[in-house]
């Protein structure tokens, strides 16, 4: 029998959920969002797109396969999507105190404590998710001693991309073609996917003027928070669009490329965070099951005359990618690099590299 400490999740509408702690015993606050994926918590927790958020995992049992070592090869994490846990807290229904997996080196609870991140189990995540679907993503806080232990926090009023981005230029690979990767909070599997395709990858901070460099292609990464804070990035992308070199974006990259093309972005009610989002390639009969993690979307109607949607979400009709009508510019709102799956759309990396 485990005697884990009582803990509360308090939503900003006054709703209180009682649970037990299995992570760091510290108060924390953020935007409460939910993910419906059945597996992949090591990848999700280290995804920088979750920066400033408290993650609710809807699949009931979590922790049963532990977590791997945080080892690196050539500066890239072997098993995670960044250097550390990015979420402000983790909310689950049933925590498995015992774990078993060939690659596991520690328990999920131990990992959370190492990263000073609180975790709660014993929460009715079905009821919590219903609230978030009906009312939308909302501010929440995890407290141990009382409601006044910490204040509510809205990550969307701060520049989360500036926090998540690298602080200096980093180079990977030694291929003939050079690709600039604008790091808005990049997942490491994007780096892996590009390097595996034989390019030299030049990773630059979100506000770095990459137009001063020599490059064959531009890649704009995923990232957390509100894209409206990234005007410096948009200005640099707009300058690059004056030429004809290939440009590709993923997730936040889709939104920033769209903004550079004159489109507007809006906040979704509760976002898309799962492994099973169906998207249709426009002007085709092709449908793909995709991994997604975003709270903002591109307004299709705001796309300029030079642009058109590339993918559409079949659940709600929202934009899932754009393409330029004459130049080699395109993007995807979903995650073709997956991590932790599915990998149905990894061909988008091939499409980009073939255009270099």
From TrEMBL:
It comes from the Bacteria. It is an enzyme of class 6 (ligase). Its EC number is 6.3.5.5. It catalyses: hydrogencarbonate + L-glutamine + 2 ATP + H2O = carbamoyl phosphate + L-glutamate + 2 ADP + phosphate + 2 H(+); L-glutamine + H2O = L-glutamate + NH4(+). Keywords: Amino-acid biosynthesis, Arginine biosynthesis, ATP-binding, Glutamine amidotransferase, Ligase, Nucleotide-binding, Pyrimidine biosynthesis. The active site is at 251 (nucleophile), 335, 337. CDD domains: GATase1_CPSase. Gene3D superfamilies: 3.40.50.880, Carbamoyl-phosphate synthase small subunit, N-terminal domain. Pfam families: CPSase_sm_chain, GATase. L-glutamine binds at residues 49, 223, 225, 252, 255, 293, 295-296. Pathway: Amino-acid biosynthesis; L-arginine biosynthesis; carbamoyl phosphate from bicarbonate: step 1/1; Pyrimidine metabolism; UMP biosynthesis via de novo pathway; (S)-dihydroorotate from bicarbonate: step 1/3. Residues 1-177 are annotated as: CPSase. Residues 5-143 form the Carbamoyl-phosphate synthase small subunit N-terminal domain. One of its GO terms (molecular function) is carbamoyl-phosphate synthase (glutamine-hydrolyzing) activity. Composed of two chains; the small (or glutamine) chain promotes the hydrolysis of glutamine to ammonia, which is used by the large (or ammonia) chain to synthesize carbamoyl phosphate. Tetramer of heterodimers (alpha,beta)4. Belongs to the CarA family. Small subunit of the glutamine-dependent carbamoyl phosphate synthetase (CPSase). CPSase catalyzes the formation of carbamoyl phosphate from the ammonia moiety of glutamine, carbonate, and phosphate donated by ATP, constituting the first step of 2 biosynthetic pathways, one leading to arginine and/or urea and the other to pyrimidine nucleotides. The small subunit (glutamine amidotransferase) binds and cleaves glutamine to supply the large subunit with the substrate ammonia. This is Carbamoyl phosphate synthase small chain. It comes from Dysgonomonas termitidis. The lineage of its organism: Bacteria, Pseudomonadati, Bacteroidota, Bacteroidia, Bacteroidales. The gene is carA.
């Amino acid at each position: 029998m485990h005697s884990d400490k009582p803990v509360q999740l308090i939503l900003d509408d006054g709703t209180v959920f009682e649970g037990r702690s299995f992570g760091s015993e510290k108060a924390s606050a953020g935007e409460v969002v939910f993910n419906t994926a059945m597996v992949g918590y090591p990848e999700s927790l280290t995804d920088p797109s979750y920066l400033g958020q408290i993650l609710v995992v809807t699949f009931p049992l979590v922790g049963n396969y532990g977590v791997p070592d945080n080892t690196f090869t050539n500066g890239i994490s072997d098993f995670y999507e960044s250097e550390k846990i990015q979420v402000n807290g983790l909310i689950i229904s049933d925590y498995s105190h015992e774990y078993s997996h060939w690659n596991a080196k520690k328990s999920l609870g131990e990992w959370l404590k190492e990263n000073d991140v609180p975790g709660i189990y014993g929460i009715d995540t079905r009821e919590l998710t219903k609230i978030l679907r009906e009312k939308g993503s909302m501010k929440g806080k995890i407290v141990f001693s009382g409601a006044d232990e910490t204040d509510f926090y809205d990550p969307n009023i701060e520049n989360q991309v500036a926090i998540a981005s690298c602080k200096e230029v980093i180079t990977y690979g030694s291929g003939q073609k050079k690709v600039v990767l604008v790091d808005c909070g990049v997942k490491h599997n994007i780096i892996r996917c590009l390097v595996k395709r034989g390019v030299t990858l030049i990773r630059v901070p979100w506000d770095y003027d990459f137009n001063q460099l020599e490059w064959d292609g531009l890649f704009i990464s995923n990232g957390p928070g509100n894209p409206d804070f990234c005007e410096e990035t948009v200005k640099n992308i707009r300058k690059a669009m004056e030429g004809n070199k290939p440009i590709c974006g993923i997730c936040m990259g889709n939104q920033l490329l769209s903004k550079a093309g004159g489109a507007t972005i809006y906040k979704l009610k509760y976002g898309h965070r799962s492994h099973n989002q169906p998207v249709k390639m426009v002007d085709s009969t092709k449908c793909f099951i995709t991994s997604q993690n975003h709270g903002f979307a591109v307004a299709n109607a705001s796309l300029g005359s030079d642009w058109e949607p590339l993918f559409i979400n079949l659940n709600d009709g929202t934009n899932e990618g754009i393409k330029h009508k004459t130049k080699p510019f395109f993007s995807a709102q979903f995650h073709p690099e997956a991590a932790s799956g599915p990998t149905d759309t990894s061909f988008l990396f091939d499409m980009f590299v073939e255009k270099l």
